[in-house]
Structures are given as C-alpha cells and as structure tokens.
Amino acid sequence: MKTRITELFGIQYPIIQGGMHYVGFAELAAAVSNAGGLGIITGLTQKTPADLTREIARCRKMTDKPFGVNLTFLPTVTTPDYPGYISAIIDGGVRIVETAGRNPEAHLPRLRNAGVKVIHKCTSVRHSLKAEAIGCDAVSVDGFECGGHPGEDDIPNMILLPRAAEELKIPFVASGGMADGRSLVAALALGADGMNMGTRFMATKEAPIHESVKRAIVAASELDTRLIMRPLRNTERVLKNVAVEHLLEKEASLGRKIRFEDIMEEVSGVYPKVMMDGEMEAGAWSCGMVAGLIHDIPTCKELIDRIMAEAETLIRKRLGSML
Questions:
Q1: Residues 29 and 173 in one domain
Q2: Containing domain of residue 242, as a range?
Q3: Sign of CA dihedral 146, 151, 154, 155
Q4: Which of 151, 194, 221, 304 is the least crowded, having the fewest Cβ atoms under 10 Å away?
Q5: Dihedral angle over CA of 160, 164, 166, 167, nearest 10
Q6: What angle separates helix 82-91 from helix 49-62, to the nearest 10 degrees?
C-alpha cells in the first residue's frame, strides 16, 4: 500500500507504533519496523542521552528498516537534556522523530538540517496547523478516544480526521481507536494517510512489558477507561484500577482546589512499577478505549499482516461490491 506517509518515511505499510513510556524499547520498535510499519523508540524512557545512544544501537542490530525516536517536550521542573537527546538521535543515524507535548519549534532547525523528518502529535486542528506552519513534515492527529493525553476539546476521530483533511496540506495519520484493518480503511476514508497505534502494540508478543499488562488490555472492554486530571486541564485516559478510582474520589472531593501534589501518589513514578514489575494497582497508566477491540496477543508481524489483509479485503470486496 502506498500513501504519502509510506513515501515520506520509506516504509512498506502506513502503520506507525507510537512512542509509549516504558513500552517503546528497541525490541518493539524493531519488530514493528521488520513487519513493514514504523517502529518508535521512546526517547525519555532512556534516562540519559547516552542511554538513548545505546538503545538506538541495540535497535540497529535488530532491524535494517527505518525506525524513529519519540521526543516528548514536557513542562517539568527539571528540563531533560533535549540537545543531548537530539545529538544521540542524529549521531545514531535516526532520520525520523515523533515529537509530542509542547511546541517543538526551537528544536526543528537542528533536526531538519540533519535530514530528520518530524511528525508531531496533535489533538486539535489548530495545533495541527501550527505544526504545519513551523515546518513539521507530518502530523499524528489524536482523537478523544486515544490513550494518554487527548487534549481538552473532546473531539472524536469521526469529526477530527475529516476536519484535519480539510485544513492540512502535509500528510497526517489517525491516532486513537486504531486496532485493525477496519481502523486503517476508515482512517484512509476520512482523509488520513495512515494510522498510529499505541495500545494495540502493547498487546503483542514483542512488547517488552509485563504479561499482566497485556492480559489486562485483552480483558478490558471499551467501557473500562477513565479520564483523570480533568480539573488540572491535563486530561489523561487510563485503564481503571483501584488507584484510579481513589484519584477520581480525590478530584470529586477537592474540586477546583485540587493541586497536582494531591494526586502525585497515583501518577508519579508509576510506569516502571506497572510495565516492568506488573504491579497493576500501582497507579494510573495510559490505555485507549480501543482495548475493547483487542482480543489477542499476536506477534507484530502477525498483527500487521492481518491488518493489511483485512484492509485489502474491505477495499476490494466489501466496499467495491457496493458500487
């Protein structure tokens, strides 16, 4: 399948594995890229630029296909060494970067001068247009269904994607609610040039996370996610558990008086405990509503091959027969 995204990134299929904290290690990125998609290493999961350099080298030993690195620009007290991480990316020969969080404009000249293609994650049309204006090569448009941070507009992909298609000139992929061949065909029909999957790639054999996390995703339905941190305007979609219910009780009781410090116990330092150690009640962790469409734990190749076969059947047979 050829789209503007496959052409831009030099990949076989228009399927991207999004950057996920303590999930996007070399094993998963290489498996996705080897299967024809675009694998992504999560940069800030690596504690230092030197660690990222080693992770990129590990990935290089596992695949000769294109892969990328995610860099999330966070509003934190201690700013990560972004110039150092960018040096690790450029020196490691990585030519694709997925940016997220705050505006990446300050770092774009250095990336672009090194021949790096940048795809920025956005949750609205206005942010997508800003990414286009500052020189990003592509956009990942996140609908309200997505795991992690869906923004504050609450626009689902059935509306957000065609609106993005009306406004954008650069390629974009659909993110949020993407799981199978139906997702890909729907995204293409709504104007996207491919799709980005996060939660779906967590439930694969190569995802280097605890088996309990994978089983929890398979067991969950589309009704099992919750939105947290809405009063702080830092909304995050997570899988429900005891810690999440406790957090929501705090939000309800404290109302507008709530501060981040009040919920630190449920959200700070959680990911290593959940993803590495399988402590499923340790705190809040991102998961999309798409969990309701995830019923198995295949290899990345099995998953991507199945998606492409389903998509071809839908396009050639079901949709074609309607004309």
A1: yes
A2: 221-286
A3: negative
A4: 221
A5: 140
A6: 30
Beta strands in 146-228 (DSSP E): 172-175, 195-197, 225-228
Measured over all CA atoms, what is the biggest interatomic distance in the chain, rounded to whole angstroms? 58
Helices (H), 241-316: 242-254, 260-267, 270-271, 300-313
Residue 129 sits in the same domain as residue 242 = no
Same domain membership, residue 194 and residue 93: yes
Residue 291 lies inside a defined structural domain of this protein:
no
pLDDT by residue for the chain (323 residues), tens digit each? Answer: 999 999 999 999 999 999 999 999 999 999 999 999 999 999 999 999 999 999 999 999 999 999 999 999 987 768 899 999 999 999 999 999 999 999 999 999 999 999 999 999 999 999 999 999 999 999 999 999 999 999 999 999 999 999 999 999 999 999 999 999 999 999 999 999 999 999 999 999 999 999 999 999 999 999 999 999 999 999 999 999 999 999 999 999 999 999 999 999 999 999 999 999 999 999 999 999 999 999 999 999 999 999 999 999 999 999 999 99
Q: Say whether both 175 and 269 belong to one domain.
A: no
Q: Is residue 145 part of a domain?
A: yes
With respect to residue 13, please indicate whether it lies within any of the assigned structural domains: yes
First-residue to last-residue Cα distance in the chain: 22
The pTM score is: 0.96
Residues in the chain: 323
Residues 122, 36: one domain?
A: yes
Contact 38, 25 (CB under 8 A): no
User: Is 215 a member of any domain?
Assistant: no
Domains identified in the chain, total number: 2
CA distance linking residue 190 with residue 143, whole number of Å: 13
Q: Do residues 142 and 172 make contact, with C-beta atoms less than 8 angstroms apart? A: no
Query: b/e per residue, 175-203, with b = 16+ CB within 10 A?
Result: bbbbbbbebbbbbbebbbbbbbbbbbbbb
